[in-house]
């Protein structure tokens, strides 16, 4: 009697792909959904990757033994020019690289106030460096290295040129948004309560409309049904659009929301503290390109 042993090996490969995108939620009157445990805001956008294969600059081990060295006459010494040192991005005494918008950023920051003493002379100094770094940290401009580059210039200009009188606030607390400059501020009884800060509204195809609205629903952390992402400090005011903390890098202008008013974390928290159902929201202008 023959005994046959059969051994079967099974190899299974499972691939799970997770994709997320920041966006707005449905109008509260249309119902809300979602379930399960909350996930950290922005977790869906975190993407990492690596490759074990050697890249073009990685050495590859030789497949054959190297040839044995042979004796040869020593070469005649030749004269060579020592390599020139690479230029540094900034004078070492300031601790900051100087950007192409130095004078303009110095001027705007001096106009805004609150970031330190600046001299609008177009030359980076230790005081300028510290002030620009403070500004960059406040508005989450990365990297916060004190360089007056394009993003720092753009944000400083938008904030410094925002005309808060365009928002017809009236009495009570009013949240104001300048869609053209992509800035927002808060007024109370006709006076500025929270100075202008940065925002990002609807991208092309999802334009955030101008007009006067009212906050009619709030949730410390709302689940967006259509886009499957958590929206921290959610305050809805019209057609599924509202304030919430951004789930992506706010200063990436190539993207935008699906109509919502994106805020930096500190601003989203402050707006949540000041807002309530019934608070007025006034939007003026129009985001360029929408």
Automatic annotation (TrEMBL):
Signal peptide annotation: 1-23
Gene Ontology MF terms in the entry: peptidoglycan L,D-transpeptidase activity; transferase activity
Pathway: Cell wall biogenesis; peptidoglycan biosynthesis
InterPro entries attached to this UniProt entry: LD-transpeptidase (IPR050979), LD_TPept_cat_dom (IPR005490), Peptidoglycan-bd-like (IPR002477), PGBD-like_sf (IPR036365), Transpep_catalytic_dom (IPR038063)
Annotated segments matching region Disordered: 28-101
Pfam family, one: PG_binding_1
Active-site residue list: 244 (proton donor/acceptor), 260 (nucleophile)
Keyword presence, Cytoplasm: no
L,D-TPase catalytic domain: residues covered: 173-284
Ranges annotated as biased composition (Pro residues): 56-69
GO biological process entries: cell wall organization; peptidoglycan-protein cross-linking; regulation of cell shape
Keywords attached to this entry: Cell shape, Cell wall biogenesis/degradation, Peptidoglycan synthesis, Signal, Transferase
SUPFAM superfamilies in alphabetical order: L,D-transpeptidase catalytic domain-like, PGBD-like
Keyword Nucleotide-binding belongs to the record: no
Single GO cellular component term: extracellular region
PANTHER family given in the database record: EXPORTED PROTEIN (PTHR30582:SF33), L,D-TRANSPEPTIDASE (PTHR30582)
Identification of the protein by name: Putative peptidoglycan binding domain-containing protein
Source species of the chain: Micromonospora echinaurantiaca
Species lineage: Bacteria, Bacillati, Actinomycetota, Actinomycetes, Micromonosporales
């Amino acid at each position: 009697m023959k005994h046959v042993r059969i051994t079967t090996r099974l190899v299974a490969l499972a691939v799970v792909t997770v994709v997320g995108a920041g966006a707005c939620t449905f109008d509260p009157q249309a119902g809300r959904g979602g379930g399960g445990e909350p996930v950290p805001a922005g977790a869906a956008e975190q993407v990492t990757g690596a490759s074990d294969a050697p890249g073009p600059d990685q050495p590859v081990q030789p497949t054959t033994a190297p040839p044995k060295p042979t004796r040869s006459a020593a070469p005649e010494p030749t004269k060579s020019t020592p390599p020139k040192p690479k230029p540094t991005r900034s004078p070492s005494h300031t601790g900051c690289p100087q950007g192409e918008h130095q004078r303009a950023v110095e001027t705007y920051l001096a106009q805004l106030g609150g970031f330190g003493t600046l001299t609008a002379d177009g030359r980076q100094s230790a005081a300028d460096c510290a002030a620009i770094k403070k500004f960059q940290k406040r508005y989450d401009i990365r990297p916060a290295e004190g360089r007056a580059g394009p993003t720092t210039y753009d944000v400083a200009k938008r904030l410094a040129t925002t005309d808060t009188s365009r928002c017809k606030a009236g009495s009570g607390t009013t949240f104001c948004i300048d869609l053209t400059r992509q800035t927002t501020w808060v007024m109370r009884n006709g006076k500025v309560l929270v100075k202008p800060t940065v925002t990002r509204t609807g991208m092309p195809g999802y334009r955030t409309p101008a007009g006067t609205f009212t906050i009619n629903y709030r949730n410390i952390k709302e689940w967006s049904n259509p886009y499957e992402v958590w929206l921290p400090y959610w305050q809805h005011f019209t057609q599924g659009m509202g304030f919430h903390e951004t789930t992506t890098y706010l200063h990436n202008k190539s993207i935008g929301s699906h109509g919502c008013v994106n805020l930096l974390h500190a601003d989203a928290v402050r707006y949540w503290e000041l807002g309530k159902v019934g608070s007025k929201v006034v939007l003026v202008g129009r985001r360029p390109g929408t």
